């Protein structure tokens, strides 16, 4: 069970990465107004975006540990499901994206599937 808990910080790091990239991409301006090269240079020199990529890189190294301890057919769906839920909630809370009843039901169904999948592996 302890190995499953390793998925939470990995999902948190990936969620941070996705939310920060979305936030900074929307605040750094439109690609059409500056040109792609200049826009890319803004991204590559933005310390907040770099922190997001560093978080994703660190998460990928932690993921190497998880896949050595858990079956991939269980670990990956848990990771994706938890990350999906965290990005959905983070997008709603930090980026003011819409959170509909359909999305909440989808997350509940995903977590039901995770619980079934993990209990079948036990």
Description:
The protein has 122 residues and is mainly alpha-helical. The chain has one domain. It is built from seven helices and no strands. The protein has helices spanning 2-5, 7-27, 31-34, 36-45, 47-69, 72-95, 101-121. Helix 2 (7-27) packs antiparallel against helix 5 (47-69), helix 2 (7-27) runs parallel beside helix 6 (72-95) and helix 6 runs antiparallel to helix 7 (101-121). The longest helix has 24 residues, at 72-95. The protein starts with a helix and ends with a helix.
**What's the overall average pLDDT, rounded?**
89
Number of strands: 0
Low-pLDDT sequence parts: none
What characterizes the major β-sheet? none
Quick one: overall form?
Answer: flat
Helix content: over 70%
Oligomer classification: single chain
Number of helices, counting only DSSP H or I runs of 4 residues or more? 7
SS-based class: mainly alpha
Rg, please? 17 Å
The tally of structural domains comes to 1
What is the terminal separation in angstroms? 9 Å
Please state roughly what percent of the residues sit in beta strands, choosing from under 5%, 5-15%, 15-25%, 25-35%, 35-45% or over 45%. under 5%
Q: What's the order of the H and E elements?
A: HHHHHHH
């Amino acid at each position: 069970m302890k190995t499953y808990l390793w998925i939470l910080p990995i999902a948190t790091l990936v969620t941070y990465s996705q939310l920060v990239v979305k936030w900074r991409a929307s605040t750094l301006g439109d690609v059409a107004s500056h040109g792609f090269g200049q826009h890319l240079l803004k991204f590559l020199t933005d310390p907040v975006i770099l922190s997001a990529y560093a978080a994703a890189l660190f998460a990928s190294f932690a993921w190497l540990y998880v896949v050595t301890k858990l079956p991939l057919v269980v670990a990956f769906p848990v990771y994706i499901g938890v990350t999906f839920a965290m990005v959905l909630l983070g997008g709603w809370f930090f980026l003011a994206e819409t959170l509909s009843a359909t999305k909440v039901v989808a997350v509940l169904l995903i977590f039901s599937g995770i619980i079934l999948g993990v209990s079948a592996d036990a």
